[in-house]
Write a structure and sequence with these properties.
By secondary structure, the protein is of the alpha+beta class. The protein is about 40% helix and about 15% strand. The strands form five sheets. Strands 4, 5, 6, 7, 8 and 11 form a six-stranded antiparallel sheet that branches. It is flat and about 115 Å long. About 25% of the residues are buried. This is Phage portal protein, SPP1 Gp6-like.
Length: about 525
């Protein structure tokens, strides 16, 4: 049973509502700008308003979207390998939550959108499902059997933090539009949820445009009448909105540093392409002899090439008539131009005038965004050796690890809360990521071998090389080789890895595929021994 408006008077609107609406409106333009650059819908910056109007009228779009690359480069390295717990039976519950919410597909999308905007929110809430009981013990504990995990765009959702304890969430706001064009707003607190709806015909711009929205009712035992419940109770004692961000308190789009280079590149491309027609069909000129009769040149083709212009027609259909010129393009033909002392053509712009600066702006953007240049232009950024590439990738790998820490902490909070909804509390959840980088060349394996030779435990050396705990356990499980044999084994792997690197450089294999092949080879050789 629902009622869009309460019949019982309710206190004046919460000041958090006014602040929340204002902050959403204030933050939205920056998020929309981030989306424009990511989607390649950013208009070219023109010095002339007249030229801007002309390009828009002609519908010309020559955007080459490099700005999305810094976002995609990060997302490709953010792969959750598993969500686990040391508590008995909890890992299975986590797998159920993962499958039910299709997080194999949704999680990369959440990472991408959080990178695109710098912020993103996930709401976790029970789902009603009376057809199937997944966990009878949860029902016995008063818990639920289904839990939903939903992405929320930062233009519609925002978390506010306690000014005294900046890491602590104070409340969250969510705003969305209904089919009847009215707006709904929820203010979510640890113990209550305040629901609002915009007044009919209002602009929904301030708190005065909203009234409480009641969806929960109960029967008064004394009067036996229906009583509206507002605000609604939050039975979980925690704000069910979780913030994915790459900075605090709010993040920055991964590609924000590429806005300027992208504008410059777009302008260079449009300028270059506007001159391509002149390279194919260069403009020509004829110089009239000042001593000749000027009418002679004008009369040259007056009768044979006569047409009128229709200004309302398409520019490609503007000429009428079938005029023909006395000049022909046949080999050996002679053009006699009466009254003309010289002809020529205007030089077109050198393509390098545009292409060379574009390469420089790509480098600027890659450096600002801590993204390897090869993600933008592989051919012009080949590294002389694996060691050089590793050195160049360090800022990028560090950024990936920072994102794993930030997003991983948020995912832990998401799954701990989801388990709480299902009646499972006080458990630890681990988010395990695929390595941000792995050793897959000869130089790298020589370093690993040197570490082991100098007393670093094999497990530690392999994990520092980028292999996961599970991969290392599989490799070292039942190990019978001596240290010297293992070192010799690693040397052999290093030689093979050096050859495989060439395949990676040519784009035939990915680094992840090489890492898997090496891990498999190590395991097979161990078993054979």
């Amino acid at each position: 049973m629902t009622s869009p408006l309460p019949t019982v008077p309710i206190a004046a609107s919460n000041p958090d509502l006014e602040k929340g609406l204002a902050e959403l409106d204030k933050a939205t333009p920056a998020y929309e700008k981030a989306a424009q650059f990511f989607d390649g819908k950013r208009d070219e910056v023109f010095a002339s308003p007249k030229l801007r109007r002309l390009m828009r009228r002609l519908g010309i779009n020559l955007t080459f979207n490099f700005a999305k690359t810094p976002v995609n480069a990060v997302v490709e390295r953010l792969e959750i390998s598993s969500i686990t717990s040391t508590a008995d039976g909890v890992t299975a519950k986590l797998s159920d939550i993962w499958r039910h919410n299709e997080l194999d597909v949704e999680a990369p999308g959440i990472h991408r959108k959080a990178g695109e905007f710098g912020d993103g929110y996930v709401m976790v809430w029970p789902e009603d499902d009376e057809t199937e009981v997944l966990d009878e013990s949860a029902e016995e504990k008063g818990g639920y059997t289904r839990v939903g995990i939903y992405w929320n765009d930062p233009t519609t959702c925002r978390v506010f933090y306690d000014p005294e304890v900046p890491r602590k969430k104070h409340h969250a706001i969510k705003r969305w539009q209904l089919a009847d064009k009215r707006w709904r707003v929820d203010l979510l607190y640890p113990h209550t949820i305040e629901r609002y709806i915009s007044k009919p015909g209002s602009k929904a711009e301030s708190s005065t445009d909203f009234v409480p929205y009641v969806v929960d009712f109960e029967i008064d035992e004394e009067t036996e009448q229906v009583v509206e419940i507002w605000p609604a109770e939050n039975p979980f004692g925690e704000i069910p909105v979780f913030h994915f961000r790459n900075d605090r308190p709010y993040g920055e789009p991964e590609h924000a540093g590429f806005y300027g280079p992208q504008d410059a590149i777009t302008k260079l491309i449009v300028s270059h392409m506007s001159g391509v027609d002149y390279q194919s069909l260069p403009q020509r000129y004829a110089l009239v002899d000042p001593d000749s009769d000027s009418g002679e040149a004008a009369d040259l083709d007056e009768d044979d090439f006569d047409f009128e212009l229709d200004p309302t027609a398409d520019q490609n259909q503007a000429s009428k008539g079938q005029g023909t010129s006395q000049f022909t393009s046949e080999p050996g033909s002679l053009w006699y131009m009466q009254g003309v002392k010289g002809v020529g053509q205007f030089e077109t712009a050198d393509p390098d005038t545009f292409l060379r600066p574009m390469e420089r702006y790509l480098r600027f953007g890659a450096q600002i965004c801590s993204t390897p240049l090869r993600f933008f232009d592989y051919e012009t950024s080949r590294m002389p050796s694996g060691a050089s590439q590793t050195q160049a990738d360090r800022p990028f790998v560090k950024k990936i690890r920072n994102r794993q820490l930030s997003y991983g902490g948020t995912w832990q909070d998401v799954f701990v809360f989801a388990l709480k909804i299902l009646g499972v509390e006080d458990v630890e959840v681990m988010v395990n990521w695929a390595p941000a980088e792995t050793v897959d060349d000869e130089a790298g394996w020589n370093v690993v071998a040197a570490k082991i030779a100098n007393g670093v435990p094999t497990k530690q050396a392999l994990m520092e090389a980028g292999y996961t705990d599970d991969q290392v356990k599989e490799f070292l499980g039942g190990q019978t080789e001596t240290l010297a044999e293992r070192l010799a084994h690693l040397k052999q792997v290093a030689e093979v890895a050096g050859q495989l690197k060439s395949a990676v450089d040519e784009g035939l294999l990915t680094q992840e595929q090489v890492a898997e092949m090496i891990a498999t080879a190590l395991g097979n050789d161990r078993d054979a021994a």
